[in-house]
Amino acid sequence: MMSNFWLINLVIFQSVWWLSALFTHQALVGVIVLLALHFALSPSRKADLSSLMVLPVGLLVDQALAAAGVIQFAGNQPWLPVWLAFLWVHFTLTLNHSLSWLGRCHLGVQSLLGAVFGALSYIGGIKLGALDSALSVFNLFIVFGAVWAVVLPLVVHLNSRFVAKTGVQHV
């Protein structure tokens, strides 16, 4: 078992975030290669596959934010781009590794961390041109903060339930 896999997972996710934010569709090959690397090295592939069960939450949230006009995708395409779906795939994989400590945090702490860092992540992506929005940075922070105050605790909770059903110890 690879005891420092959490660090590898962190580096993979940060690499995927930057690739996605800077290169969007052109990042897809690199993002898929990093997904294969994650599964090649992961000490808990079965649990990681179970984590993908939370993926619809993220995809639906981003699609709803686009439908509400909070964010726009390149070329005003109506559907969530593939690169963003893969970013969500990689995010779900952090829940068993580099973000596994969130499961031990109080719900209020999860909400606060989600509100701050979820909002900052999206605002960063918008500032780098991966997404667009007509809202001010302040309004974006309010909207994404409110959304992520709910989304992060929800995905942490759902992930723990899905992983528990695999019978695999949480990494």
General description of the model:
By secondary structure, this protein is mainly alpha-helical. The chain has one domain. Helix content is 67%, strand content 0%. The chain is built from seven helices and no strands. It has helices at residues 5-23, 28-41, 45-51, 55-67, 82-94, 107-127, 137-164. Helix 6 packs across helix 7. The longest helix is centred in the last third of the chain and has 28 residues, at 137-164. It is globular.
Question: Helices, strands, pairings?
Answer:
Elements: H1 5-23, H2 28-41, H3 45-51, H4 55-67, H5 82-94, H6 107-127, H7 137-164
Protein name: DUF2878 domain-containing protein
Transmembrane segments: 16-41, 53-74, 80-99, 111-131, 137-156
Keywords: Membrane, Transmembrane, Transmembrane helix
The counted number of beta strands is 0
Write down the secondary-structure element order. Answer: HHHHHHH
Q: Helical stretch count?
A: 7
Average pLDDT works out at 94
Strand content: under 5%
Gross morphology is globular
Percent helix range: 55-70%
Query: Which secondary-structure class do the elements indicate?
Result: mainly alpha
Main beta sheet: strand number and arrangement? Answer: none
* Distance from first to last alpha carbon: 10 Å
| Rounded Rg | 16 Å
How many structural domains?
A: 1
Q: Brief overview, please?
A:
The protein is mainly α and 171 residues long. It has seven helices and no strands. InterPro entries: DUF2878.
What are the salient characteristics of this protein?
mainly alpha, membrane, 171 residues
